[in-house]
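As a warm-up, study this chain.
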Amino acid sequence: MSDEVRLGYIGLGNMGAPMAKRLVDWPGGVIVYDVRTEAMTPLAEVGATLADNVADVAKADIISVTVLDDDQVRGVVGELAPHVKPDTVIAIHSTIADTTAADLAAEFAPRGIHIIDAPVSGGAGAADRGELATMVGAERPVYERVKPAFKQWASMVIHAGEPGAGTRMKLARNMLTFTGYAAACEAMKLAEAAGLDLQSLGRVVRHTDALTGGPGAIMVRDDMAPLDAQHWLYEAFTHTRGLGEKDLSLALGLGDAHDVDLPLARVALDRLAEGLGVPHTKDG
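Now compare it with the structure written out below.
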């Protein structure tokens, strides 16, 4: 990517501000805009150029957008589009419906404007350190163009597929996060009923998650088809199935003993084997 490429950033909230701040040393510079003047001032102090309005950011070649929701994304893109140069990339970092990015990409492609989605994961602290993960929905050549800029604030830049695919990957990732939170709440409910200290349980969970990797440790398959007995994961996942079903059954028994309903644990017990790709057969 040429050093002459200029970056733009619209939306300087909890995520946008630290992401934009990491772009101030970009050789081509960065121009930023937020409806709140007070949000722009810290960026100016570290070397960013301030825009007077959304249209001013259209001077940039790659424009990042981190705003609240689908309506705001559409509004910003609509304001930018009449002013940008052909071949400009507008990257949406907000978590929105996957259809929004895909629809905008199709709408503006005939005008030579590349609308891509690149939602992020990791939180504001990771943004400040440049350690976010971003999942990019873009045609491959456009992905290659934006990757060096995105690497300023992300330590993992993944090409998810066509526009919309980045958001679909983010939604799958977040589903895991919040389903896990719900399961954690269920575990705490059981622990409390069994007379355990919840702070101590939390310390154990955080410690062992750091060792085992948590749910991400099993996310190493290419597809969700049942595993062949010769597959390199078959024995390990069969072992995991056995441990999981035993432990879930024991937890459900403890719940019954303390009159605690554990619906997520019951679903997990019912579906673990199939999900791991090692469903039970008549032989075991």
